[in-house]
Write a structure and sequence with these properties.
alpha/beta; DHBP synthase; single chain; 15 strands; Rossmann fold; 4-stranded parallel beta sheet; binds magnesium ion; binds threonylcarbamoyladenylate
């Protein structure tokens, strides 16, 4: 059962302490309650997907306490900086290029080379400052349920799966943050949210570009926000061809594994949790080996296996999935 605390100085330190141990804490932000984990700790981040029961890995928003922390992880262009100066802390998230070598676990950005950053108001920001590390935090609710906007709602939904909940009363905004991305000199709104588009448009003196939300929902596999390797991907492989790179799983190897150009094992013990933390990093590394194909050993569909398989299926057919196929793998 999660411990529920108020939001005094002691609670902030207790939350930072629990987060530093790689555990999950539900924290109040001005938009909705977030299910937070240390963004530098892959195992903690995998725990978010486990607790939410998410059937896929989507990139998570990373929360920072100040601009200096944001600059550790992302390249900030002048327009993004203008938005940051005007609206942070607050319900605005910016998608920015991830700095090479930035200490953020690849599972946070689902293997992308961009990172979504936001500086929340209030107690969340104090916790991040106390921890001195960014927090990955999607809304605190089971996948498919509505976002948690009170400590009680979070407790009922996730209380058995997380270590701690901080109670700051009902969320001020009650709606997730607005997400934007600067492309050249245009600002694209990726998700409407708690900061009205008009407010951003008033600052910029021009209209935002909008993506077609319905198209994005109908065909998530076609969204630009999915990492796709250059090398082809072959799934459920029981026999490896020479020249292929092998993404292995568990203690037993596919036939011909010794002929593979490279082998990386997601988890030699068959832990899906460990496999989730290695997935994006290993796909990138095998992609860089110049192999003819990335061959992937069978991975079970239980627990985090569903999200791992979802990601691999998208990687195997990154641009050619029809809406019908998408429905089948959802
Ligand atoms: O208000 C909020 O934003 C809440 C509170 C807890 O802060 N957080 C939240 O986080 O809604 P999350 O992780 O559920 O938002 C994830 C969404 C993804 O579905 C995706 O649309 C977008 O953020 N996103 C994250 N990283 C991205 C990236 N690198 N490129 C494009 N979109 C990204
Ligand atoms: Mg949500």
């Amino acid at each position: 059962m999660a411990t529920i605390l108020g939001i005094d100085e002691q609670a902030i330190l207790a939350a930072a302490n629990v987060l530093a141990q790689g555990k999950l804490v539900a924290i109040p932000t001005e938009t909705v309650y977030g299910l937070a984990a240390d963004a530098t700790n892959g195992s903690a981040v995998a725990g978010i997907f486990e607790a939410k029961g998410r059937p896929h890995f989507n990139p998570l928003i990373c929360h920072v306490s100040d601009i200096t922390m944001a600059e550790r992880y992302a390249e900030i262009d002048p327009i993004s900086r203008q938005l940051i100066n005007a609206f942070w802390p607050g319900p605005l998230t910016l998608v920015l290029p991830l700095k090479p070598g930035a200490d953020i676990h690849p599972l946070v950005a689902a293997g992308l080379d961009t990172i979504a950053l936001r500086m929340p108001r209030g107690v969340a920001r104090k916790i991040i400052a106390a921890l001195d590390r960014p927090l990955a935090a999607p809304s605190a609710n089971t996948s498919g349920k509505i976002s948690g906007t009170s400590a009680l709602a979070v407790e009922e939904d996730l209380g058995l799966k997380i270590a701690m909940i901080l109670d700051a009363g009902p969320s001020e905004v009650g709606l997730e943050s607005t997400i934007v991305k600067v492309e050249g000199n245009r600002v694209l709104m990726l998700r409407p949210g708690g900061l009205a588009a008009e407010e951003i448009e008033a600052l910029l003196g021009e209209k935002l570009d909008r993506i077609d939300q319905r198209a994005a929902i109908q065909a998530p596999g076609m969204m630009a926000s999915h990492y796709a390797p250059m090398t082809g991907v072959r799934l459920n492989v029981r026999e490896v061809a020479p020249g292929e790179a092998l993404l292995a799983f568990g203690p037993q190897r596919a036939i011909g594994a010794s002929e593979a150009k490279a082998i990386l094992n997601l988890s030699t013990t068959g832990s899906l949790h460990e496999a989730a933390t290695n997935l994006f990093d290993f796909m990138k590394r095998l992609d860089a080996t110049g192999s003819t194909m990335i061959a992937v050993e069978p991975i079970p569909f239980n627990g985090l296996g569903e999200a791992i398989n979802d990601r691999l299926i998208r990687a195997a057919a990154p641009r050619a999935l029809s809406v019908t196929e998408m429905e089948q793998i959802k």
